[in-house]
C-alpha cells in the first residue's frame, strides 16, 4: 500500500479538484477521493447496533423523517419548533447547559409540556463544538426526547452512541468521512422506534396509525426490544472511505488549528474560542475578519447580506476558492475547514486572499460592481 503524506501535492491529486482550486469549505458539502476502498461496517464507527441504524440521503431527510413521524398535542413545546434557547458564542459549556436546562424548567413550570429538544454536536455557523453529551443527559433527567443533529460529527470527532444514548441522532457521512454524496445515517434508540412509522418519502413498509402506539410515555431506562421491521423501512446502501478515518481526524484537526492561527495572525484578529478552549477541538476554525459592521454596512442587515453575497462570488471568480463567510454578533467571521488535502501554504494563501478581500470591501467595491 502506498503512503501519501497529508497536505502533499500527491494527496491533493487524490481528490477530484481542478488544479488551481483550494477547497477551504469542506464542511459544507464534503468530498470524496478518486479511489475509494471498502471500510468496516458503519455501526463500528459510532458504537451502535446495526439494527438501530438506517441510511438516508442527508441530514435534512433524517431530521424530517424524525419530526414528521412525531405526533404533537396542544401545549407541547420543542426548542426547535416553538421556543429557541438563545446562546451567544463563544460561551462556556457550563453556561450553555445551565441556560438550556433553565429554559426547560421555565416552560414546564408555566404549563407547557416540553417533549423534544433539538441541538447540534457542532454548529454550522459559526462552527463550534457544543456540549452535546451534557445536553443529552439534561434531556434524560427531564424526560425530554433528544434529537441530536450531528451533521458534522462522523469522521470529525469520535462518536459513541451506546454511551451517549440519545433518542435520535443523525450525521452526514459525505462531509468528513469522505464517501460519495448523498449519504447520512439515522440512529433511533429501540425505546422510540415505535414512534417512527414512515420513511420520507413513505415507502412499502409504512404502518398505519391505527396499528401503532404513539404515546410519548418513554421510559429512558427501559431496555426495549425495538421494532422488528424498523430497519426494513429504509433502504441500505454501501459505505466506503479512502483511509482509516481516525488518521484523517488527527491531521485535519491539527491543520484547522494551525491554519486558523495563520489566518488570524495575518489579519490581525482572533480565532473564536471559549475559556475552556473546547471550540477548537475539531476541524473548523472561525476567524474574525477585519471589517466593521457599522462602517461597512451601517448595521443594516440588507447591506450585510449584499456584502456577503459579493464576497462569496469574488472568492470563486477571482481567487479559485470558497470560504464560508457570515455575520455573527455584529462581526464578520470566516469558517475555515482543515482537511488532509490542505497544508499550511494553503492557509497562508487563504489569509492573503481574505486580507485583500477585506480591503476591497472597505473600498466599497461591493457597491460599485454590477
UniProtKB/TrEMBL annotation:
<keyword id="KW-0663">Pyridoxal phosphate</keyword>
<dbReference type="InterPro" id="IPR015421">
    <property type="entry name" value="PyrdxlP-dep_Trfase_major"/>
</dbReference>
<feature type="domain" description="Aminotransferase class V">
    <location>
        <begin position="52"/>
        <end position="256"/>
    </location>
</feature>
<dbReference type="InterPro" id="IPR000192">
    <property type="entry name" value="Aminotrans_V_dom"/>
</dbReference>
<keyword id="KW-0808">Transferase</keyword>
<dbReference type="GO" id="GO:0016740">
    <property type="term" value="F:transferase activity"/>
</dbReference>
<dbReference type="InterPro" id="IPR015424">
    <property type="entry name" value="PyrdxlP-dep_Trfase"/>
</dbReference>
<dbReference type="Pfam" id="PF00266">
    <property type="entry name" value="Aminotran_5"/>
</dbReference>
<protein>
    <submittedName>
        <fullName>PLP-dependent transferase</fullName>
    </submittedName>
</protein>
Amino acid at each position: 500500500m502506498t503512503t501519501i503524506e497529508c497536505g502533499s501535492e500527491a494527496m491533493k491529486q487524490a481528490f477530484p479538484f481542478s488544479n488551481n482550486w483550494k477547497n477551504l469549505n469542506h464542511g459544507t458539502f464534503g468530498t470524496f477521493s478518486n479511489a475509494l476502498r471498502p471500510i468496516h461496517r458503519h455501526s463500528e464507527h459510532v458504537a451502535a447496533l446495526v439494527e438501530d441504524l438506517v441510511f438516508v440521503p442527508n441530514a435534512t431527510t433524517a431530521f424530517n423523517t424524525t419530526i414528521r413521524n412525531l405526533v404533537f398535542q396542544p401545549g407541547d413545546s420543542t426548542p426547535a419548533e416553538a421556543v429557541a434557547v438563545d446562546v451567544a458564542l463563544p460561551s462556556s459549556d457550563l453556561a450553555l447547559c445551565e441556560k438550556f436546562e433553565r429554559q426547560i424548567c421555565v416552560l414546564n413550570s408555566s404549563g407547557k409540556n416540553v417533549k423534544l429538544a433539538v441541538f447540534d454536536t457542532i454548529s454550522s455557523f459559526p462552527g463550534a463544538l457544543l456540549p452535546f453529551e451534557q445536553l443529552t443527559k439534561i434531556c434524560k433527567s427531564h424526560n425530554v426526547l433528544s434529537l441530536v443533529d450531528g451533521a458534522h460529527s462522523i469522521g470529525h470527532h469520535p462518536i459513541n452512541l451506546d454511551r451517549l444514548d440519545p433518542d435520535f441522532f443523525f450525521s452526514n457521512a459525505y462531509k468528513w468521512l469522505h464517501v460519495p454524496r448523498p449519504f447520512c445515517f439515522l440512529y433511533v434508540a429501540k425505546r422510540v422506534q415505535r414512534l417512527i412509522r414512515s420513511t420520507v418519502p413513505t415507502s412499502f413498509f409504512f404502518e398505519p396509525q391505527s396499528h401503532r402506539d404513539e404515546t410519548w410515555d418513554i421510559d429512558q431506562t427501559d431496555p426495549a426490544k425495538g421494532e422488528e421491521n424498523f430497519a426494513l423501512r429504509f433502504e441500505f446502501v454501501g459505505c466506503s472511505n479512502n483511509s482509516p478515518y481516525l488518521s484523517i481526524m488527527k491531521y485535519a484537526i491539527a491543520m484547522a488549528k494551525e491554519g486558523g492561527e495563520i489566518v488570524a495572525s495575518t489579519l490581525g484578529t482572533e480565532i473564536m474560542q471559549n475559556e475552556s478552549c473546547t471550540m477548537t477541538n475539531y476541524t473548523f476554525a472561525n476567524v474574525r475578519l477585519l471589517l466593521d459592521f457599522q462602517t461597512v454596512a451601517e448595521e443594516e442587515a440588507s447591506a450585510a447580506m449584499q456584502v456577503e453575497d459579493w464576497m462569496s462570488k469574488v472568492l470563486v471568480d477571482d481567487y479559485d476558492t470558497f470560504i464560508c463567510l457570515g455575520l455573527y454578533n455584529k462581526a464578520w467571521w470566516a469558517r475555515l475547514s482543515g482537511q488532509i488535502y490542505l497544508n499550511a501554504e494553503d492557509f497562508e494563501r487563504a489569509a492573503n486572499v481574505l486580507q485583500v478581500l477585506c480591503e476591497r470591501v472597505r473600498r466599497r467595491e461591493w457597491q460599485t460592481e454590477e
